[in-house]
DNA sequence: CAATGGTTCTGAAGCGATTCAGTGACGACT
DNA sequence: AGTCGTCACTGAATCGCTTCAGAACCATTG
């Protein structure tokens, strides 16, 4: 509690408690080797002096940093507007906080950058484990990590992308089923999708699932790829509405695009949901606040973050982790989807 | 490049290059004390062995972590939906990355938590500097930091809240002027505001500025406080619209609430902007995607993050930093504001 | 009573870098 | 030829902690 002008070390605490530095270490870390009375005394003195073990020294001595690495792909626009990353961070942070770990965050401008950050972390041991996000198909980072088995890593992605790495897996295919099924049950037989960039692994997974499910149900399906921005979403919507026959329902890969689509519809006198049903893949406050409220696939991203954190802690402890499923998607039906218009 | 099974240290590099460990250190850090030829040789060997200095050892030896601390207040909902924090992180991350620093992130569940994280960072030297966000009036953290001058800190807040600490200051009062002026010029004489939680320092600053500016202009003004959620925003809107005379313009402290307000208006047959003008304090894709597009106060948060990072690096270098102004707010006029309705 | 065993505690050797003081070697200058 | 200075390099101390091996002490036990 008392604030100290000069740096206080374990030896100061040792001297003040009349024991050796090793005793202090044992006392503080709850290890055997000191009596209860000296332990209490030491803790007391440590508190008075406001002493905590120096992080660097501790890391060096036990080769543990109590840090977990997260690399953010640099696109401020996207990061800011997509609730995904921030939710994940919330979950990670909350869980790690309980275990006294922290999150080390770095930003990569491109994929080379990201590779070099990974190399850096492996070489410098600046983190105890790391998270792999936004995997692409045949992602080279997977091999990098396999060649450095001393650095635990958890991939958050569809299990088909992670080649046996410990994985927190989302079941995007099941979600596709939910979404399509919902629209199918409402009578839609011609649906479209406005997706994100084609290179992203999850775009690909979803593409495949959509094609498969719609084919099975005999539903007409087409897909446009965009850069996730509302402008692109609006543009794609206009194009979709101008073909003949126009889709009666459109699913957007994120919520801003769905919101923009509602605007396009309003401007063009297309009523939602009477003339056009709109769905969003991601759910957020935005979908709730929009008018009409946007039907969305919802998942507990914060919880995913917590699970991811706990899995990494397991990996750090040397436990095996294979593939763990994320909390499943849930369909939140709001007012933007309705029965398909009579033809 | 070559991947190494076992941990490689500076001594391995020294042996392989036929020099001492000190020579390796000098060579790597670009310091004098080695010839150009041995320097080249050492760097070459280091690259071949894939060696980089161990982070903990380096930190311990030079008492520098190359890390900057950021504490996130835990409210996943808010964090996720407000683009502010993620944008700030983007800016911080981008700037820090260039200087080879990283961001150490922890999450606080409440303010006691946050205090103990700060104490921890001060005592363990786990970061070289830290950021102070969401200051409240008379925030105790300011005193904590003043008592520990060895830990550089930068506050991001209105300068009136930071009691002389190095500050990246936003001029919320000027922004209030912009906003009110815009509405005033459109003929509005009865405006309302839906704000965030009253405890937040910036809420208070804005409250005061609004009262002052509207009084000056002879504009009727009232303010409701909420928890920032769209539901609360919608609710506040309904209440405001039911009073007599109802305001002809409402300013919302964030964009989800403004979006929700558009929904409320639509449901109640209130036309935007003919019957009611709506503005948002924060700008994001959401305001652009909404229909009608929401007039908003826009500021370059990413740039603020970059500036904050560079200021902290200055502080770490021992330079003085007083109060630096953030990039100013800019009014982005869209379709949600228009001339005040004739009475 | 010697032997054994169990606590409690200490000294010193790590961890892997940086950095200071010191040693040769060599060239330049008087 | 002798001295000085510079340059390249090395050995050892240092950062602050953990942890192992062993010392000191006391209590049991056969």
Keywords:
alpha/beta; 14 helices; transcription cis-regulatory region binding (chains A, B); DNA-binding; 343 residues; homodimer; 434 Repressor (Amino-terminal Domain); Rossmann fold; LacI/GalR-like_sensor (chains A, B); 47% helix; transcription (chains A, B); 16% strand; 3 domains; 6-stranded mixed sheet; Lambda_DNA-bd_dom_sf (chains A, B); DNA-binding (chains A, B); 6-stranded parallel sheet; elongated
Outline the fold blueprint.
The structure is a homodimer of 343-residue chains.
Chain A: H1 10-17, H2 21-28, H3 36-49, H4 55-62, E1 67-73, H5 76-81, H6 83-98, E2 102-108, H7 111-124, E3 129-132, H8 140-147, E4 153-156, E5 167-169, H9 172-185, E6 190-195, H10 201-217, E7 220-225, H11 230-242, E8 249-252, H12 255-267, E9 277-280, H13 285-289, E10 295-298, H14 301-316, E11 323-325, E12 330-332
Parallel strand pairs in A: 1-2, 1-3, 3-4, 4-5, 5-11, 6-7, 6-8, 8-9, 9-10
Antiparallel strand pairs in A: 10-12
Chain B binds a DNA duplex (30 and 30 nucleotides) through helix 2 and helix 4.
Keywords (chains A, B): DNA-binding, Transcription, Transcription regulation
InterPro entries (chains A, B): HTH_LacI, LacI/GalR-like_sensor, Lambda_DNA-bd_dom_sf, Peripla_BP_I
Organism (chains A, B): Bifidobacterium italicum
What report would you give on this structure?
The structure is a homodimer of 343-residue chains. The first copy, chain A, is α/β, with parallel strands linked by helices. Chain A has 3 domains: 10-53, Orthogonal Bundle (434 Repressor (Amino-terminal Domain)), CATH 1.10.260; 67-170 and 301-325, 3-Layer(aba) Sandwich (Rossmann fold), CATH 3.40.50.2300; 172-298, Rossmann fold (3-Layer(aba) Sandwich). Helix content of chain A is 47%, strand content 16%. Chain A has helices at residues 10-17, 21-28, 36-49, 55-62, 76-81, 83-98, 111-124, 140-147, 172-185, 201-217, 230-242, 255-267, 285-289, 301-316, and strands spanning 67-73, 102-108, 129-132, 153-156, 167-169, 190-195, 220-225, 249-252, 277-280, 295-298, 323-325, 330-332. In chain A, the strands form 2 sheets. A 6-stranded parallel sheet of chain A has the order 2-1-3-4-5-11, with helices on both faces. Chain A has a 6-stranded mixed sheet with strand order 7-6-8-9-10-12, with helices on both faces. In chain A, helix 10 links the parallel strand 6 and strand 7 (220-225). In chain A, helix 1 packs across helix 3, helix 9 (172-185) runs parallel beside helix 10 and helix 11 crosses helix 12. The radius of gyration of chain A is 26 Å and the shape is elongated. The model of chain A has no long low-confidence stretch (mean pLDDT 93). At the A-B interface, helix 4, helix 5, helix 6, strand 2 and helix 7 of A face helix 4, helix 5, helix 6, strand 2 and helix 7 of B. Strand 2 (102-108) of chain A pairs antiparallel with strand 2 of chain B. The structure holds a DNA duplex (30 and 30 nucleotides).
